[in-house]
Amino acid sequence: MSKQEVILCENLEESLGHALEKCPHDKLFILTDEHTDRLCLPALKEVPQLKNAIEIRIGAEDIHKTLDTLASVWMALSEKGATRHSLLINLGGGMVTDLGGFAAATFKRGLAYINIPTTLLAMVDASVGGKTGINFNGLKNEIGAFAPANSVLIETEFLRSLDAHNFISGYAEMLKHGLISDKAHWVELLAFDTENIDYAYLKELVGRSVQVKEDIVEQDPFEHGIRKALNLGHTAGHAFESLALAQNRPVLHGYAVAWGVVCELYLSHIKVGFPKDKMRQTIQFIKENYGTFTFDCKQYEQLYAFMQHDKKNTSDTINFTLLREIGDICINQTADKDTIFEMLDFYRECMGC
């Protein structure tokens, strides 16, 4: 898989102009959703190369990350005459970059694309690393492909228009990157004032967070080994997300990941000795910033079934990424059903369900 160019922009128009010059194309398309069409696209109107760009707009939020939406993007590309030499710009959050990237990867067996993430979650996670896809059959990201963008342009000024829930959702992935990297980064993330945001300092933290992911993806682009470190919190988190969807009370991805981190730090503690004090500090931050996802023991079997469908599993066992310490990663760890139910008991007890 080719290496992505990830740019932390000082001037978005200039960065986009350079990125477009590196991608010769016959037609240019811009994928937006209902929010980014209104809030973010105007920031690109002065880029001369976009004068004749064709906009494709889709619905916002994860409920539109579906096969039907994907087909509508394919249809728009087809009707507007896209070829294998066309270029797609994905302007939006993780749903737009995931779905748009998959549309680009599959239309006429692949056309080039550029990601311009507009949410914190997309900047530090979804738009970087080459994973694309859609939800299917009630499961998160069940259909997809590894297909990196030619460029990822990160403009943190977009975050000023982000609401508090979407901000803190993205911050969960940053917290995860802190846990899998080093103690200093973890400490600064726990200390950051998430209510009175210092945007200049946030830009520095975003840069460090993206670097953590880039370094891991470069070592293992197709997730055969160390890239599994990025799955911390996601086995339990995706199960929470799927249960929430099934119960028609959808939650933002980052919230589910944060709650998943609570579960998987507990597993880390009992299975590989992650320090109890660091587990408690992290859980306290999550309780204060993310609230809790409520369920009772009657949902344990359903949550376990969702975990069994996780793409990271290699056999009949459920696979987790765990930590011995901050930055000391244990991939390919398993847990039996009784231990997973014990983990869910711990979550409900410490989170006050």
UniProtKB/TrEMBL annotation:
<dbReference type="InterPro" id="IPR030960">
    <property type="entry name" value="DHQS/DOIS_N"/>
</dbReference>
<dbReference type="InterPro" id="IPR050071">
    <property type="entry name" value="Dehydroquinate_synthase"/>
</dbReference>
<dbReference type="GO" id="GO:0000166">
    <property type="term" value="F:nucleotide binding"/>
</dbReference>
<comment type="function">
    <text>Catalyzes the conversion of 3-deoxy-D-arabino-heptulosonate 7-phosphate (DAHP) to dehydroquinate (DHQ).</text>
</comment>
<comment type="pathway">
    <text>Metabolic intermediate biosynthesis; chorismate biosynthesis; chorismate from D-erythrose 4-phosphate and phosphoenolpyruvate: step 2/7.</text>
</comment>
<keyword id="KW-0862">Zinc</keyword>
<keyword id="KW-0057">Aromatic amino acid biosynthesis</keyword>
<dbReference type="InterPro" id="IPR030963">
    <property type="entry name" value="DHQ_synth_fam"/>
</dbReference>
<dbReference type="InterPro" id="IPR016037">
    <property type="entry name" value="DHQ_synth_AroB"/>
</dbReference>
<dbReference type="Pfam" id="PF01761">
    <property type="entry name" value="DHQ_synthase"/>
</dbReference>
<dbReference type="GO" id="GO:0009423">
    <property type="term" value="P:chorismate biosynthetic process"/>
</dbReference>
<keyword id="KW-0520">NAD</keyword>
<keyword id="KW-0547">Nucleotide-binding</keyword>
<keyword id="KW-0170">Cobalt</keyword>
<keyword id="KW-0028">Amino-acid biosynthesis</keyword>
<dbReference type="GO" id="GO:0005737">
    <property type="term" value="C:cytoplasm"/>
</dbReference>
<dbReference type="GO" id="GO:0009073">
    <property type="term" value="P:aromatic amino acid family biosynthetic process"/>
</dbReference>
<comment type="similarity">
    <text>Belongs to the sugar phosphate cyclases superfamily. Dehydroquinate synthase family.</text>
</comment>
<dbReference type="InterPro" id="IPR056179">
    <property type="entry name" value="DHQS_C"/>
</dbReference>
<dbReference type="GO" id="GO:0003856">
    <property type="term" value="F:3-dehydroquinate synthase activity"/>
</dbReference>
<dbReference type="GO" id="GO:0008652">
    <property type="term" value="P:amino acid biosynthetic process"/>
</dbReference>
<keyword id="KW-0456">Lyase</keyword>
<keyword id="KW-0479">Metal-binding</keyword>
<feature type="domain" description="3-dehydroquinate synthase N-terminal">
    <location>
        <begin position="57"/>
        <end position="168"/>
    </location>
</feature>
<feature type="domain" description="3-dehydroquinate synthase C-terminal">
    <location>
        <begin position="170"/>
        <end position="313"/>
    </location>
</feature>
<dbReference type="GO" id="GO:0046872">
    <property type="term" value="F:metal ion binding"/>
</dbReference>
<keyword id="KW-0963">Cytoplasm</keyword>
<protein>
    <recommendedName>
        <fullName>3-dehydroquinate synthase</fullName>
        <ecNumber>4.2.3.4</ecNumber>
    </recommendedName>
</protein>
<dbReference type="Pfam" id="PF24621">
    <property type="entry name" value="DHQS_C"/>
</dbReference>
